Amino acid sequence: MQFAFKERHVSLFRNGRNQAIRIPREFELKGKKAIIRKEGDKLIIEEVKQLNLVELLDSLEPLDVAFPDVDDDLLPLDNIEL
After folding, report:
1. In sequence order, what are the residues at sequence separation of 6 or more whose Cβ sits closer than 8 angstroms to the Cβ of residue 59?
2. In a 3-state reduction of DSSP, which class is residue 56?
3. Would you say 26 and 5 are in contact if contact means Cβ atoms under 8 Å apart?
4. Full pLDDT tens readout for the chain, 82 residues
5. Separation of alpha carbons 20 and 44, rounded Å
């Protein structure tokens, strides 16, 4: 049975020059990085989702630039028989 926790009171503390918060276990994020943003008086913390290579390539916009012909100045290849 999985519980859906909606809110919990936590304490804020100082860590050097930063304000910090301990995230309770039931709110833990996967991974090691997160994005934080402020919307009005609310702080929103979201985990950074790691894309695999296929997802990353699918997320990129297609290039509309023709690739330059980089071998214009090269000598022709030798025909080698193996």
Report:
1. 51
2. helix
3. yes
4. 566 668 889 999 999 999 999 999 989 998 889 999 999 999 999 998 888 899 889 989 988 888 888 888 888 888 888 8
5. 14
Looking at residue 13, its amino acid is F
Residue 19 has φ and ψ, to the nearest 5°, of -90, 140
Alpha carbon distance 63, 24 (integer Å): 44
What per-residue string of b and e applies to 2-35 under the rule 16 or more CB within 10 Å gives b? eeeeeeeeeeeeeeeeeeeeeeeeeeeeeeeeee
Among 35, 31, 33, 26, smallest CA distance to 7 is for 26
